[in-house]
């Protein structure tokens, strides 16, 4: 216990010397008090960041209980988290500002469980206060607590020195390490019921509540004793867990996946972690109860309520006082970290699966990274050789790097079970403990004295002056108002957003928007706008669908059907699909809008014809054939409604070619659903008054619907592919987990071989364990093989290529290309026609009016 020394601070040293109740097992190691100049130097190296609230020596500035809750990063710490920098600091530090900071290792052996008792005797024997033997092999540590050790004993061994170190200004940490079910949680926090207020003095109470009980007692003692020096303490606590490599705030579990940050001033801290001031034991107990109830637990083969995360309870203790001797004020900051690590378990024995397997894999991986770090630190401490220290390998080591090989006194409480069934895990823990013992930390008192405070005060004063100057300058004659500008900027960044639902209404294609809307009757005949097909570049690749026909096929089929009927069917289809699309996905709105536009324009064409029919049955030319190989032969069409017997009236249609009147039975146009286009070719219309939809309109509509359906199919395919890709991601994750478990089994094998060589493991046991390990690994490999992501990946690729191939085949072999060309040509022809006719439209209109007005009944 050589590393626990008396406080260097004169007040506390004095206090410790006078305080008979204050156990300090290493008082003989006390070092001489540094000279003021030295103290100043060391203080500078550990100076916390300039915080106007903390650097003032005015002791009245401690927060009141009312303002105790705050959210902030972890408190300032000496900027020495960088090992290299730390090394430089340590080298330049005065020798006597350092404490002898070897890691203190205590092994606690839990009593046998009932089930284990049947197996026979314990395999671990305590040899002395600091040694034990297992299978004839002896291990020596700082202390060994056997099955009879009480919670109070553990506190005296670990907790009491920790409190004294903390009051002296040293960062102090306790890590509980060990196999699942070995008693870490029991030791650190005690059973849950021991935390309740009525059991506060119960003998089951764990280390943490005892530490805080002692801490508050000692703080009271100190404050009373040094009233004249205005000694004041304040403590603030946080509680977090690391589960599956993610940090959660246990005091506010809604704060998940918190990030660890590091900067030169504050060192390593957890962003947005809640900290609460504590003044009494009751405050701490409440935090513990709250935090522990939020911890992730699950059952393992050994422990029904196993902690599945690493949890870290942190308390920052700050003390301020004035020295009577030299009148200087001092601020000391120390941090207590109480860490309950998740327990390791051998997955091959427990046969875990699914989420538990992932958990176990993460626990074992981070423990193995901790072990690796401990090995490196031990090697550095023993050989003095500099090596890269992989603190960033895991959240645990990154967060607690200061406790591991840094500026902290560290006690490692290693929990073991003496049961035969836990032999190999116990060996593993003891080896870890042995390596940890070799580590040398470099703890220093984190103290700041008045000189620094004055300097920082001066800086603050200068900054305030600067601020005033800037404020004064801001009242400049230009009249520029920064607040106003800020508001303007804000309004630019957050413009008044229209109601999203309104937005949707605007974007959505309502089926009603596809209805025929009566348009204003104009004397000038409105040219129908060429239809715009949905523009979906990739949809071209998937035009062929299993459920639809190509345009050519559809054309040939449609020929047998009367046009209007067909149009109604198409319209209904597009209506429903538009509604469906609007419901399912916003992203599909654009193509649907295009479709709606196409349909609407189609209907406008019809409507124009309709109007022309109403309005003295004006006729106009509408090309129905592409102008490709065949020259455009304009077909004159008019618009008529379905005849209804009761409302039949005689209408006269004019053929623009022959000017022959055609009498057709049409009804008045009230009901636009009866609308249809009819050719007014004199020869055909007389002989064949049968209704027929112009092919150009029909094709455009059919094409639009066809593409929309193809798009839907394409979306469905994409959805399926996304599902497949998600599965692939899961498979990759699973593979990674399998790999890490296999890695773990290799490490286990090394340990087994070590045990075999040490004679701890008999050849028979070794072979048995080896066989079990191989079986487990075989199972994992089989699982890995069956769910191999590469196979799924290739399947997805193959499906993609097949689809592409089908699309190309559609496009080239099945006539899609021709259909599209035809459509384009149709549209071109229409455009051409209207361009040509626009110049003479006025003339024509006049002449047509002239021709048709006399026909009005
Ligand atoms: N020294 C002890 N005396 C009495 N009971 C103990 C002791 N140590 C552990 N136990 C009991 O053993 C059980 C498991 O202990 P605990 O939960 O502390 O193990 P653990 O090491 O934290 O396990 P895990 O890593 O799975 O969380 C608990 O019911 C606890 O009360």
Taking pLDDT < 50 over at least 5 consecutive residues as the criterion, the unreliable ranges are 1-98, 491-592, 612-692, 851-857
CATH level-four homologous superfamily name of the largest domain: Kinesin motor domain
For the sheet with most strands, the description reads: 11 strands, mixed
Q: Percent helix among the residues? A: 40-55%
Strand elements, count: 25
Oligomeric assembly: single chain
**Could you tell me which ligands this complex binds, including any ions or cofactors?**
adenosine-5'-triphosphate
Count of DSSP H/I helices: 25
Question: Which key terms come to mind for this protein?
Answer:
single chain, 857 residues, alpha+beta, Kinesin, 2 domains, eleven-stranded mixed sheet, three-stranded antiparallel sheet, 16% strand, disordered C terminus, binds adenosine-5'-triphosphate
3D architecture notes:
The chain has 857 residues and is α+β, with helices and mostly antiparallel strands. It has 2 domains: 441 residues, Kinesin (3-Layer(aba) Sandwich); 361 residues, no CATH class. It has 25 helices and 25 strands. The strands form 7 sheets. Strands 1, 3, 7, 8, 9, 10, 13, 16, 17, 18 and 20 form an 11-stranded mixed beta sheet that branches. Strands 4-5-6 form a 3-stranded antiparallel beta sheet, with helices on one face. It is flat and about 110 Å long. The termini are far apart. The N terminus and C terminus are likely disordered. Adenosine-5'-triphosphate (ATP) binds next to α7 and β15. Belongs to the TRAFAC class myosin-kinesin ATPase superfamily. Kinesin family. KIN-12 subfamily.
């Amino acid at each position: 216990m050589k590393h626990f020394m008396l406080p260097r601070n004169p007040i506390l040293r004095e206090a410790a010397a006078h305080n008979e109740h204050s156990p300090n097992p290493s008082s003989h190691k006390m070092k001489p008090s540094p000279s003021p100049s030295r103290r100043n130097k060391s203080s500078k190296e550990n100076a916390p960041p300039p915080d106007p609230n903390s650097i003032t020596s005015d002791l009245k500035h401690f927060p009141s209980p009312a303002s105790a809750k705050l959210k902030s990063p972890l408190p300032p710490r000496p900027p020495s988290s960088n090992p290299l920098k730390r090394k430089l600091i340590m080298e330049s530090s005065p020798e006597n500002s350092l404490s002898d900071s070897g890691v203190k290792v205590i092994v606690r052996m839990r009593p046998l469980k009932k089930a284990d008792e049947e197996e026979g005797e314990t395999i671990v024997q305590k040899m002395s206060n600091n040694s034990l033997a297992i299978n004839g092999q002896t291990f020596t540590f700082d202390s060994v607590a056997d099955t009879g050790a009480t919670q109070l004993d553990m506190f005296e061994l670990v907790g009491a020195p920790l409190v004294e170190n903390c009051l002296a200004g040293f960062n102090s940490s306790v890590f509980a390490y060990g196999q699942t079910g070995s008693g870490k949680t029991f030791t650190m926090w005690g059973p849950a019921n021991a935390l309740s207020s009525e059991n506060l003095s119960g003998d089951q109470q764990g280390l943490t509540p005892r530490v805080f009980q002692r801490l508050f007692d000692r703080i009271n003692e100190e404050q009373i004793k040094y009233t004249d020096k205005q000694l004041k303490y304040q403590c603030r606590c946080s509680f977090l867990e690391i589960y599956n490599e993610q940090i959660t705030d246990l005091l506010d579990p809604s704060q998940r996946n918190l990030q660890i940050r590091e900067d030169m001033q504050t060192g390593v801290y957890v962003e947005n972690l809640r900290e609460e001031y504590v003044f009494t034991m009751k405050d701490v107990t409440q935090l513990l109860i709250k935090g522990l109830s939020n911890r992730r637990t699950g059952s393992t083969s050994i422990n029904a309520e196993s902690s599945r995360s690493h949890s870290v309870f942190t308390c920052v203790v700050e003390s301020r006082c004035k020295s009577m001797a030299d009148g200087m004020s001092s601020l000391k900051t120390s941090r207590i970290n109480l860490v309950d690590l998740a327990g390791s378990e051998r997955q091959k024995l427990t046969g875990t699966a699914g989420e538990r397997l992932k958990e176990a894999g993460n626990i074992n991986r981070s423990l193995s990274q901790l072990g690796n770090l401990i090995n490196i630190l031990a090697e550095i401490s023993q050989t003095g050789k500099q090596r890269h220290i992989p603190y960033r390998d895991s959240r645990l080591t990154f967060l607690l790097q200061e406790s591991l090989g840094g500026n902290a006194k560290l006690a490692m409480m290693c929990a073991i079970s003496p049961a035969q069934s836990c032999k190999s895990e116990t060996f593993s823990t003891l080896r870890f403990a042995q390596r940890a013992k070799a580590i040398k930390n470099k703890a220093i008192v984190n103290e700041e004295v008045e000189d620094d405070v004055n300097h920082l005060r001066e800086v603050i004063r200068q900054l305030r002056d600067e601020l005033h100057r800037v404020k004064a300058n801001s009242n400049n004659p230009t009249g520029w108002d920064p607040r106003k500008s800020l508001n303007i900027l804000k309004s630019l960044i957050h413009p008044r957003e229209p109601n999203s639902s309104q937005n949707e209404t605007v974007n959505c294609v309502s089926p009603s928007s596809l209805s025929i809307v009566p348009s204003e009757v104009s004397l000038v005949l409105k040219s129908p706008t060429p239809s715009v097909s949905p523009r979906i570049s990739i949809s071209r690749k998937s035009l062929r669908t299993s459920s639809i026909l190509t345009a050519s096929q559809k054309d040939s089929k449609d020929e047998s059907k009367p046009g209007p009927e067909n149009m109604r069917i198409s319209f209904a289809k597009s209506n429903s699909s538009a509604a469906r699309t609007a419901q399912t996905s916003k992203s599909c709105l654009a193509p649907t809008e295009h479709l709606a536009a196409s349909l609407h324009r189609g209907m406008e064409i019809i409507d124009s014809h309709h109007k022309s029919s109403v309005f003295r049955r004006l006729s106009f030319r509408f090309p129905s054939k592409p102008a490709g190989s065949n020259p455009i032969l304009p077909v004159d069409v008019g618009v008529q409604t379905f005849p209804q017997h009761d409302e039949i009236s005689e209408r006269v249609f004019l053929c623009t070619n022959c000017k022959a009147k055609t009498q057709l039975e049409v009804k008045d146009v009230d009901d636009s659903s009866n609308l249809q286009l009819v050719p007014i070719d004199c020869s055909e219309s007389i002989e064949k008054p049968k209704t027929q939809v112009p092919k150009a309109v029909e094709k455009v509509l059919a094409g639009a619907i066809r593409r929309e359906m193809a798009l839907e199919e394409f979306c469905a395919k994409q959805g399926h592919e996304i599902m497949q890709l998600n599965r692939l991601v899961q498979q990759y994750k699973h593979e990674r987990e399998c790999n890490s478990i296999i890695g773990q089994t290799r490490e286990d094998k090394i340990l087994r071989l070590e045990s075999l060589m040490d004679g701890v493991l008999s050849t028979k046991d070794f072979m048995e364990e080896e066989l079990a390990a191989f079986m487990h690994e075989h199972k994992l490999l089989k699982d890995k093989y069956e769910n191999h992501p590469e196979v799924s990946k290739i399947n997805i690729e193959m499906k993609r290529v097949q689809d592409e191939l089908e699309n190309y085949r559609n496009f080239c072999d099945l006539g899609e290309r021709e259909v599209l060309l035809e459509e384009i040509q149709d549209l071109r022809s229409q455009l051409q026609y209207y361009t040509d006719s626009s110049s003479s439209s006025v003339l024509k209109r006049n002449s047509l009016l002239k021709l048709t007005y006399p026909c009005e009944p």
